[in-house]
Amino acid sequence: YAGGPDEMLEIEKLLIKHDIEFSPHNPSGPISYAHTLQICSSAKKNSLMEHQFKESPYFNILLKDPMPKIKLGKSSIPNNTYGLGVSLDRMELQKISH
């Protein structure tokens, strides 16, 4: 985990300086996934992003709108709302939190 988007982009700069590829890992859920997509879209070099694949049944139901599909190893940036482009489905969140 890094200290936020600015720190992640600073890490990328350091890696580029030493000719190391930047590849964020994202195992934590749909909000952090949207965050990491934003980071990758802001990176100076094309970056690979590791993501979860069917690790949790909740990943796809916790958002009001689904994440953009990954096609040929690429994803667009979610833009369904302000900020990270995603919002939680509070009804689904309440179902699983009880």
Structural commentary:
The structure is a single chain. With 98 residues, this protein is mainly alpha-helical. Helices cover 35% and strands 4% of the residues. It has helices at 5-17, 30-42, 90-97, and strands spanning 25-26, 50-51. Strands 1-2 form a two-stranded parallel ribbon. The longest helix is centred in the N-terminal third of the chain and has 13 residues, at 5-17. The protein is elongated, with a radius of gyration of 14 Å.
Helix content range: 25-40%
Largest sheet: 2 strands, parallel
Shape verdict: elongated
Report the span from N to C terminus: 28 Å
Mean pLDDT: 87
Structural class by SSE content: mainly alpha
Q: Give start-end ranges of low-pLDDT stretches.
A: none
Order of helices and strands: HEHEH
How many helical elements?
3
Per DSSP, what share of the residues sits in E-state strands of 2 or more residues?
A: under 5%
The radius of gyration over CA amounts to: 14 Å
Strand order of the largest sheet: 1-2
Structure summary, number of beta strands: 2
